[in-house]
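Hi L.,

You mentioned the student needs an example of a multi-chain input paired with its predicted structure. This one should do, with 860 residues in total across all chains.
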Amino acid sequence: MTNKRFIFILLFLACMASAFAQDASFELIRPQNVVEGRNFAITFRVSNGEANPPSAPSLEHCTLLFGPSTSTMHSAQYINGKMTSSSSVDYTFTYRADSPGTVNVPEVSVTVDGKAMRSRAASFKILPSDAPRSGNSGSQTQSRQGSATDIPVSADDMLVRVSFSKSSVYEQEPVVATIKVYTKYDITSFLPTVQPAFEGFLSEELPVDNEISLEHYNGQNYHSIAVKRLLLYPQKAGKLSVNSGKYDVTLVKYETVNMGFFQTQRPVERSITTSSNVASIVVKPLPEPRPAGFNGAVGRYSVETSLEPEILRTNEAAVYSYIIKGRGNIKYLNEPAVQFPAGIDAYTPKSEVDAHITADGTNLTGTYTTLFTFVPQEVGNFEIEGTPFVYFNPETSKYETVDVADMPIRVLRGNNVPGVAQQQTEINKVIDDILHIKPTREEDQSHVISYTYQSSAYWLAYILVILILIGVIVVYRRNIRLKADVAGQKLAKASRVAVKRLKIARQHLQKHEYDQYYAALSKSLWGYISDKLNIAPSQLTRENVAQKLSEYGLQTEGIDNMLSVLDGCEMARFTPMADSEATELYSRAESAIKSVEDIKKR
Amino acid sequence: MNRLIFTLLLLIGSVSAYALTIGEQADSAYMAEDYSGAIELYTRSIELNGHSSDIHYNLGNAYYRNGKLGKAVVEYERALRLSPANADARTNLEFVKSRIQDRPEDDTAFFAGLHRKAVSGMSANAWAWIAFVIFLLFMGAVALYIFANSVALRKTGFFGGITLLVIFAYTLLAAHDSYTNARSHETAVVTVPSTQLSSTPRASKSGNDKVVTIHEGTAVEIVDSVATPDDPVSPKWYNVKINNSTKAWLRASDIERI
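Structure written out for the whole complex:
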């Protein structure tokens, strides 16, 4: 007894390790497909609770044989000092499948611990029994081992098939491809040597549930298992085919062995090579004309934009996010072309995809975020123009546009002010065209172009200027000479005038008019000195005459002689003199003048 | 007969009084983006009423808009020749030159380049008058030297005079260069999209000569010309200098003299 219980507990631990629950539940174990004429079981499981056995559901095409039979399981776990335990009761009804068709198991309700609970409805198929073999036509399978065992493996006993979920799709519209193995025997090894190539598709691997189910195919019942499921996005239009893959498979066949009284079966391993079918799908091109801004997005999308941070400053980086949300070929979208206004330096955008497979496994869903990092260079109000997002909706077969609102941005002056030169280049960049025309005025136009350089008047002007200068110089020179000549003439005339006056004095002497004689003699001498030394007569005195004469170069005796004559003249005017004295004075005056003249000659 | 002439005269008078001049028509064609129409009208206006810096500038703009960069360069150069002070023409010439494909290596010496820049900075007439004014100042300095009484003033006059004489010599040279530049027709611009430089004055046979292609808008200097009567397609060839180190022959029909 204790031994039995121990075995039970071990079994529970082994089988139910993953499935333990604390809450009471009631569920239907999903029924598998069955073949016509066979018996099968429908099992309801009550976990962690007490319930009355459910009533047997009545099923189409089936006959209830017996039930419910009950089996009870308990499990306990002790993890980190915490004990968890679970228990379950299975109620199994056994039916016989009578005729092929689809069987719906209706919802069944029970009361678990005083609470009404319902199981989910489910359906399965009753498959027709194997049709008689129609020969080994189109055998793709060969026996690799030419062993003594004689039973050949039929091509129909082991199949690998590739199938598409849809027969025709649009470009970029997702389609699910499934690689399934159909077999009548146990498979011990399954090795793909050549994988089917999905050319022209972008693929996304889908999870496979390793559940073996019974399936009717081509009049035969097979155990089938999906080995691979792919979500495919066709990249080009036309009929796309998937070439066949090659597989090395080892099967286990049971041979009947006669052992005298018994007949037993023993397993025999057989290695075979099989190839999958060539599957094809029609890919429709996206309808033309494609609207402007369409960038290959197929599915259903919405767009959000955001700006970070809210207050922008010059020379400080900011991020404009363009987030595309939705389902479709989200992984294979292209970056939207967002135009930034002048005065903003935009960097290369970065895109991030966050996509996962939808619950039904037929498409991708998620977000495609493009981050535009930019640095505003100028203060002011700008607007980032909203770039509309255009996508193709394969459900409606129409292009749809998501309008994106313009994003107003306000840029304040940042802390690190850019240099002036940088701003100047910005201005230069703006003017990138020729300047505009000027109004044409006919009065400006002329056939003859006059060149000053060529005209004779220009060169005459030079000559004129030179001539004027030369003229001015000549006149100036002459004036200087004239000025110099007045003195020279006076000098030249001096002795002549003196001689003339001396003659007059002599006439007075001969007539014995002594007063006139002395006056004339004195005048002739003073006049001679005045002219000779270029001194105005009013400035003549006895002292400065002596000085000037010595400056002129006259010897002391000459000066004394001159002065004695002058003194004599003065004295004689007041004290009468003898004739001989008057005559001597005359000759002395002559010699005085002569001595001065001699100096000049030297 | 007399009455008819009178009416005709009246009509002509009224037409000229109320209608737009050809130049104004050309301006409005340009505004309406009818550039080939504008080119035609500007050309006719130049034929009828003569040249002006602005009309050549406008014609250059019209050629540029019409995609003829070479012709545009020719017209801007003409506008600048008439008035080197036409800043808009200089701006647009620089702009168009930045768009042309060829950029021959500028191998002129530093001072020669400066001189050329200075000469092209002002019109020949402006240079002539500047030279004259400098000459007057030089004369003034000579007069100062001759007539001044104080030694300092006379020294000023002497050295100032020598300096002014040097400046005068340069300005007169600039005036002369500017005048000869304005009168010369030795500069030309390629007006076809592309043409081939060949080493001899004949069409280069494929593979025979090493040919270099030059493109629309490139300026060349004509050194020599030769007529080849046996070549019916392009009877006249020019020997051109692209820069100080490159000399080659070009078809006369491919370039236009400024």
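You could point out the following to them. Residues 110-183 of chain B form one domain. Chain B touches chain A through 48 residues (CB under 8 Å).

Best wishes,
N.
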